[in-house]
Structures are given as structure tokens and as C-alpha cells.
């Protein structure tokens, strides 16, 4: 039996579009009663529009375009008010949010506030629940904890995250489903490069780019290993990171080839063909693990410990010696993993669960 309830799917950034796209496409295909809200937190064409097109998201019911030139607080404030009006107008029953962004937490808080103060009963479904880095200096950590604690349905990637939520005393419905990124990856047509002797780099986390010393340290480590192995480093650079590199007047080494963010196919083809990827991205930890590509995470912690446990991912701690040792092990063929923990048909499982409720 198909759900009659009114669903709202809310997103605003590149990773949310990528990870919610397979779910939205099921809702569309099966003719569910749903509306899409795009906050516009990521507003440039290469961070938003190309992904909406790639995944054929189609009509956005509410395209709010609130990201541009707004500080985080102003953005969240504006979005909260506009989003509540949408929830009321659409007589929403279920809100689906994903991950840990300002869009995600603001959407969930807007629904919760209506439930608490105005007697609404909007069920909040959190996709990718239970991730914890235990690093409260990360804005994402605060966001995901808040969303988990106000959600009604919590869809976790693995048992690790379910246990975390149970330990935090969350008594709402927690369902282990895997990660929807495994569905998104099915949409990529991979190609083989002749020359695979290059590294891939992305950096965008607040704690890495808002700290000049730390950003320089990361770039120095990458430059060092690129020179040791005589590999170029392709660096599709997040807009915020580009702004910081300019602001700090950092001159990149010749080995590091900075380019603008690229579309999903191009990026994953690069990842698949690269020798090793270096990144502070969340999603890349999952993609590299699924695609059997080695990743060195440019952070001191991760909210995806399952990738460390199976050995697809390595925490650099920004320690040059550790990074060089790991690269040696990788290039000597000493690092392996077989299965990935992120499941299959994850979006289908989520929709079926919501349907049952
Ligand atoms: N990505 C992309 N083009 C790029 C860089 C990244 O399509 O130039 C994709 C990448 O495959 C991953 C997502 O963007 O799925 C990650 O986004 P980001 O690192 O901004 O966010 P996070 O995953 O850290 O929340």
C-alpha cells in the first residue's frame, strides 16, 4: 500500500543532493505525495545545479536561494522562518533530512518547533543518523547531535551508529540501513585512464581551512609526498577553500593542480583512477571505501570509524611521517579490504520503512 501522507524532502548542499537523489527518484517513480525544498545553502552552479541535473531531480517545489552572501546565522534564521511557512502550507506529515548541514538542522528544528508549540505532528526522518566524531569544535558534530535527538526515525549506516544512539539514550525508532551513497554510485559510468600516477586532493572542513597554519601544514605534507613519488596532485577545490587560499596569500607548489569543483561523474572517475586520495570530506570516506580506493583522511578524527576498522581509510593526524609510512604500505600492496559496510538498495529500505509507519 502506498503512503498517502505528505512528505517534505529538504536539502541545500552538494552532499545532501548526492545522497538524497536516489531516495527522491524513488518517491517520484512511485508517485508519492511529496515536495522538495532547496535552501540554496550551496548556491554556485558547480556545487548545486550540476548535481540536480545529473540526478534528474526535476522540479524543485521551493527553490529558496538563501545561501548567497548570507552569514551562517542569517542563513539559518531566514531559512527557519521560510521553512516553517512551507511546512504549514503543505500540511506536512513527514520531513526527510540528511546528514549534518545547517540546512539539515534548521529544517528539523523548524518542524520540532511547530510540533512543540503549535500542536503539529510532523515526523522527522534523519538519513545518516548516529555519526559522531566526538569533536565539538566541528559545526557538523553539533548539527548531527541536535538532529538525532529530535528525530522520530533514525536511519543509520551501520551497527556502530545504532549503538552510539542507544548509548545516548535515544528511544525513537533506529533502523540500520547502510548509506544511500551506495545507490548514488550506481549512476556513474566509470572509465579507465592510461596514466594513473596521480593523487587526488580535496579540503574544505572548517577546522582545516579557517586556520591558516593548519591549511599550510596540510598543503606542505601533500607537496612533500607529491615530490617524493613524482606524482601530480589534482585538487578540485571547494569555493570556501579557494577564498581562504587567496585570503592567506598561499602560493601552491607546481605539483598541486588546483581546479574548480567538478561534476560527480568526473570526480568519481578521477577518484577511481587515482593512486591515493587525500581529503577531509565525509562522503569521500564512504565512496573510496566502496570503490576500493585508498584514502588518507586529513583530520585527527572521523565520524566514520567503520572505514578505519576495515582499513580503507587512514587518519593522518597531519603527521608527515605517518602519512609517508602509510603511502609506502599502500604502494607496496600491503593494505587491503574486501567488503564495504554501506549496504545496497538503501534508499528503497528507507522508503519502505517510512511507508510501513
Ligand atoms: N565531489 C564532487 N566534485 C568535487 C568534489 C567532491 O562531486 O569536485 C563530491 C564527492 O564525490 C562527495 C561529495 O562531493 O560525494 C562530498 O562533498 P563534500 O566533501 O563537500 O561534503 P562532505 O561529504 O564532507 O559533507
Describe this structure in words.
The chain is an alpha/beta fold and 357 residues long. It is built from 15 helices and 13 strands. The chain has helices at residues 14-29, 49-54, 72-89, 102-118, 139-150, 159-167, 181-184, 206-209, 212-229, 239-247, 264-273, 283-290, 305-309, 320-331, 346-356; strands at residues 7-11, 34-38, 62-63, 94-98, 123-127, 153-156, 173-176, 198-202, 232-236, 256-259, 276-279, 295-297, 313-315. Strands 3-2-1-4-5-6-7 form a seven-stranded parallel beta sheet, sandwiched between helices. It has a six-stranded parallel beta sheet with strand order 10-9-8-11-12-13, sandwiched between helices. Helix 12 links the parallel strand 11 and strand 12. Helix 3 crosses helix 4 (102-118). The model has no long low-confidence stretch (mean pLDDT 97). The structure holds uridine-5'-diphosphate. Uridine-5'-diphosphate binds next to helix 1, helix 11 and helix 12. The site of uridine-5'-diphosphate has 16 residues, from helix 1, helix 11 and helix 12.
- Give a count of the beta strands, DSSP E runs of length 2 or more: 13
Helix and strand string, N-terminal first?
Answer: EHEHEHEHEHEHEHEHHEHEHEHEHEHH
Bound molecules: uridine-5'-diphosphate
Quaternary class: single chain
Mean pLDDT: 97
Helix-strand makeup class:
alpha/beta
**Biggest β-sheet strands, sense, barrel:** 7 strands, parallel
Low-confidence stretches: none
Helix content: 40-55%
Calculate the terminal CA-CA distance, rounded to whole Å: 11 Å
The radius of gyration over CA amounts to 20 Å
Please count the helical segments: 15
Principal-axes geometry comes out as globular
Beta content comes to 15-25%
Strand order of the largest sheet: 3-2-1-4-5-6-7
Amino acid at each position: 500500500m502506498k503512503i498517502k501522507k505528505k512528505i517534505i524532502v529538504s536539502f541545500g548542499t552538494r552532499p545532501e543532493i548526492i545522497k538524497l537523489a536516489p531516495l527522491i527518484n524513488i518517491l517520484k517513480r512511485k508517485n508519492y505525495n511529496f515536495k522538495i525544498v532547496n535552501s540554496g545553502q550551496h548556491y554556485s552552479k558547480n556545487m548545486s545545479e550540476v548535481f540536480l541535473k545529473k540526478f534528474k531531480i526535476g522540479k524543485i517545489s521551493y527553490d529558496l536561494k538563501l545561501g548567497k552572501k548570507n552569514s551562517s546565522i542569517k542563513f539559518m534564521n531566514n531559512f527557519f522562518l521560510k521553512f516553517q511557512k512551507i511546512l504549514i502550507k503543505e500540511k506536512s506529515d513527514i520531513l526527510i533530512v540528511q546528514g549534518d548541514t545547517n540546512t539539515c538542522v534548521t529544517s528539523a528544528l523548524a518542524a520540532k518547533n511547530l510540533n512543540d508549540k503549535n500542536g503539529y505532528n510532523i515526523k522527522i526522518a534523519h538519513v545518516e543518523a548516529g555519526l559522531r566524531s566526538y569533536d565539538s569544535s566541528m559545526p557538523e558534530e553539533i548539527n548531527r547531535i541536535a538532529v538525532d535527538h529530535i528525530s522520530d526515525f533514525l536511519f543509520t549506516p551501520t551497527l556502530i551508529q545504532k549503538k552510539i544512539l542507544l548509548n545516548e539514550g535515544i528511544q525513537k525508532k533506529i533502523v540500520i540501513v547502510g548509506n544511500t551513497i551506495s545507490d548514488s554510485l550506481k549512476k556513474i559510468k566509470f572509465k579507465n585512464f592510461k596514466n594513473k600516477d596521480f593523487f587526488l586532493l580535496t579540503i574544505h572542513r572548517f577546522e582545516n581551512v579557517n586556520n591558516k597554519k593548519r591549511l599550510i601544514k596540510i598543503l606542505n605534507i601533500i607537496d612533500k609526498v607529491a615530490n617524493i613519488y613524482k606524482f601530480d596532485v589534482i585538487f578540485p577545490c571547494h569555493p570556501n577553500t579557494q577564498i581562504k587560499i587567496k585570503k592567506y596569500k598561499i602560493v601552491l607548489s607546481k605539483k598541486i593542480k588546483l581546479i574548480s569543483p567538478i561534476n560527480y561523474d568526473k570526480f568519481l572517475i578521477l577518484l577511481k583512477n587515482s593512486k591515493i586520495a587525500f581529503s577531509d570530506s565525509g562522503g569521500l570516506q564512504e565512496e573510496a571505501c566502496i570503490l576500493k580506493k585508498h584514502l588518507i583522511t586529513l583530520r585527527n578524527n572521523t565520524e566514520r570509524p567503520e572505514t578505519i576498522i576495515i582499513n580503507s581509510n587512514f587518519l593522518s593526524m597531519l603527521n608527515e611521517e605517518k602519512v609517508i609510512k602509510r603511502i609506502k604500505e599502500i604502494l607496496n600492496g600491503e593494505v587491503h579490504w574486501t567488503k564495504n559496510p554501506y549496504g545496497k538498495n538503501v534508499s528503497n529500505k528507507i522508503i519502505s520503512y517510512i511507508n510501513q509507519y
